[in-house]
Design goal:
Layout (H helix, E strand, L loop, with lengths): L9 H30 L3 H19 L3 H15 L3 H38 L3 H13 L3 H16 L4 H22 L5 H25 L9 H34 L2 H37 L3 H28 L4 H5 L3 H6 L1 H9 L1 H16 L3 H26 L2 H26 L15
Length: about 450
């Protein structure tokens, strides 16, 4: 596209966003299958899976810079018409994933038991979680290779093939899991092995896609160091999210089982819609990075305005839909009258925040595409420190319950909205050329 500020066709945006949404939704859907299979083994294996799976998710989510950071760097090169160099950036991210993954794999063998016992206390649940985690994290290098693969393929605006890769691996895992757990009698460990097989298939497909591009595969440590620099800011940003979300769950649990259950129901819906919003962010990331790589700041800013309005409109639509589902949807998750009585306290926070979330996620994608990770880190940590975390713990101290917790989430989202809109208005993020814009913060 030329530097005329023309709009990106909605069809083009959806062509990137819809497959990305499929990828984002595939893992939660597989977890539901895994949970259903293991759930029939009894309470201890299910609790072990819940704890081990949570730890696995915490570890992997801290390393999403391998996808988001790689997309930012790759998209610029792709936008500059240098596809070969863009894919070569993915090769370096893959080497980085292998190295970090091997370290994690070894640490898991050493620390799985003490970490599980720290969280659950010594006993059968911790033992089950550690056993599952040790097997599952044998695939840590494979998971990180997959994250790198998502990064470079999004950067070259190919979100369709990653969807096929992920669906293939998850489908094999979903079929294999009940076979290993029951007929072969491997129990909870069978679930972990099925997970590992799926990781192997997906990583192999991404590696094959990389090899057929015929780019240089020799490790280049200077590029890996640059990727780690961008990754540092994204890791800190993710830590701020996790500190908030874990604190909210912990405080909700201290108000009793009904409060914790109500929070869990609405929070899972919030998390699901976050994936929906994030698919637009991924499309924005790819398009903005490519525009800046073409030296077209004007077009990048035009995309930013366009996806912001799309995010706002989509958020309003989701809010209206879930407002209409108020009397129906909660009863699909629970029939407990006490839990259902707690849900209205937070349901309207959840609904009302959707337009704000639509804008925040869209601008997150814009700034990730620009490589503006340092600003995102600071904005997220500041919003968490001023808004979310204080309200969560004050809610515990003063007995404000779910209303206090979700008021904190609202302040957190409003803080992020304000800081992102100010950054968008400044235009300082739109640094053109082949260097990521994290140096512009």
């Amino acid at each position: 596209m030329s530097d005329t500020g023309e709009r990106v066709p909605l069809r083009r945006l959806l062509a990137l966003a819809v497959p990305a949404l499929g990828v984002l939704a595939a893992e939660p859907l597989y977890v539901l299958v895994d949970t259903a299979v293991v759930g029939h083994l009894g309470a201890v294996p299910l609790a072990g899976l819940a704890l081990g799976g949570t730890l696995f998710t915490v570890v992997s989510s801290q390393l999403t810079f391998l996808s988001y950071g790689t997309t930012a760097r790759t998209a610029r090169l792709h936008g500059a018409g240098r596809r070969r160099d863009a894919v070569a950036e993915g090769a370096q991210a893959t080497w980085l994933g292998v190295g970090v993954g091997v370290v994690l794999m070894l640490l898991a063998q050493l620390l799985a038991v003490p970490v599980a016992e720290l969280l659950a206390g010594p006993g059968p649940i911790a033992d089950a979680a550690a056993s599952w985690l040790r097997i599952a994290l044998l695939g840590a290098p494979l998971v990180l290779v997959t994250l790198a693969g998502h990064g470079w393929m999004r950067g070259v605006q190919d979100t369709r093939r990653p969807l096929y890769f992920v669906l293939t691996g998850n489908a094999v895992s979903a079929v294999l899991c009940p076979v290993l757990v029951y007929p072969l009698g491997w129990g909870l460990e069978g679930s972990a092995v099925a997970n590992l097989v799926g990781q192997t298939i997906v990583a192999a497909l991404f590696l094959r896609a990389l090899v057929v591009e015929r780019v240089p595969m020799r490790p280049e440590f200077a590029k890996m160091r640059a990727q780690l620099g961008l990754g540092r800011d994204l890791v800190l940003r993710t830590l701020a999210f996790q500190a908030c979300f874990l604190s909210a769950t912990s405080v909700a649990a201290r108000f009793g089982a009904e409060t914790a259950a109500a929070h869990q129901v609405v929070w899972q819906l919030w998390s699901f819609l976050a994936l929906v919003h994030d698919s637009i962010a991924i499309a924005a990331q790819s398009l903005v990075g490519a525009a800046l790589g073409r030296e077209s700041a004007r077009h990048a800013k035009g995309i930013a305005r366009q996806v912001t309005w799309y995010g706002l409109g989509f958020g309003f639509l989701l809010g209206l839909v879930f407002a209409g589902l108020y009397g129906i949807l909660p009863t699909l998750f629970t029939t407990d009258p006490a839990v259902l009585a707690e849900i209205p306290q937070v349901w309207w926070f959840f609904v009302g925040l959707q337009p704000i979330a639509g804008v925040v996620f869209a601008l997150d994608g814009v700034f990730l595409g620009a490589g503006d990770a340092a600003y995102l880190r600071t904005a997220t940590m500041l919003s968490a420190a001023i808004g979310y975390l204080p309200l969560i713990w004050l809610s515990l101290a003063f007995g404000w319950g779910l209303v206090g917790i979700w008021t904190g989430l609202s302040l957190f989202m409003l803080g992020r909205l304000l800081t992102l809109l100010l950054r968008a208005r400044s235009g300082r993020w739109a640094v053109t050329g082949l260097t990521t814009a994290d140096t512009a913060a």
